[in-house]
Amino acid sequence: MKKSAKVFGTVCGILAAVCYGTNPLGALKLYAQGMPTSSVLFYRFGLAWLILALVMLVRAFPRKGKCRESVRVTTKEFSVLSALGVLFIFSSLTLYLSFHMMDAGVASTILFTYPVMTAVIMAVFFHERVDWVTVTSIVLSFIGVALLYWGDGTSTLPLGGVVLVLISALTYAVYIIVVNRSQLKMSSFKINFYVLFYCAIGMLLYSFIAGEPLILPQNGISWFYVGWLAVVPAIMALTLMVYAAKLVGSTTTAILGALEPLTAVLIGIFVFGEHFTFALAVGILLILVAVTLIVVVPARRMVKQVNTK
Description:
By secondary structure, the chain is mainly α.
């Protein structure tokens, strides 16, 4: 793979993590206006799907030098896309439900156990080689997240909330792996067109099962945050993550996701007034070091290989 593709994949992984880390910004604002989880996620996924439907409509027409992209899929592709849709439904729903039980920044830091889960799954089931850079990055990230999670050690998190976030982390880790291993021969727009459709239908069913009637956003501010959730942590994050997983692999994409809890914590501090402690500062620093390792060391190795040829 060319160096430029690796760099592009790394940038996509970083941006995907930052975009996904803005979930609390929209969710908590909408919760404060009385919208239940089912409504927040339904309108988020529904609007995101409508936007991608328009994108797919444009891509359906042939352009100069490029072939049109049909929404048709094979039976095998349909099976993979169905699995991705179900995985993302569970990952999003459990994460958003946990926001009712604990601070969103804390929930997002626990969610970061998904890189560890990804690395373990890839090593155990797919025999992916894990070098010292990957191990060190995982360890530093895990310690950093632990510091963010424990804080000053005086608070206790609800077990139900922790379980929900761990389920979210596991399903997200499997989602990344399926994207990488399935080798779907289609654009990220097409993949997410189907994934988001499944998510919108899934939230509609959940609303019925949970007895939470869907509530329309009541004002322009509410629609703004729905739009934010639809575009930034949905369309942008998912599209960028697909590129990253394909270009740099599942484990690297997951570790770059360290910027996700970092983003959520910063939003908590500057938007929702959460306290900034010494443990929080050290945790953030360790996460940044982990991300720097996973980006810089492989890049230097590649430069040395090129120079020695």
